[in-house]
Write a structure and sequence with these properties.
Layout lengths: L7 H17 L4 H28 L1 E5 L5 E5 L5
Antiparallel strand pairs: 1-2
Length: about 80
């Protein structure tokens, strides 16, 4: 990761690159292990970002008087 604070999308792009590189099989075992470790860290980081975002997501509804009210979003699919 070259950026100080890469975005979620940049991290996902890097993760996709890692997966493609490993799947192609053109790298040594040592490099594959380094890439796998980097990918694992990216998955963990992105998962944490998604968990934080989920906590912030609110479903906006309308009260009887027409004013907006906020409720926690029902994520139980």
């Amino acid at each position: 990761m070259t950026n100080q604070n890469p975005t979620f999308e940049e991290n996902m792009t890097r993760l996709e690159q890692i997966v493609r590189t490993i799947e192609q099989g053109n790298v040594s075992l040592e490099e594959s292990l380094k890439l796998f470790q980097e990918g694992t860290e990216l998955v963990r980081y992105c998962g944490n970002l998604l968990d934080q975002a989920e906590l912030q997501v609110k479903k906006i509804t309308t009260a009887a008087d027409g004013s907006p009210i906020e409720e926690d979003m029902d994520v139980g699919l």
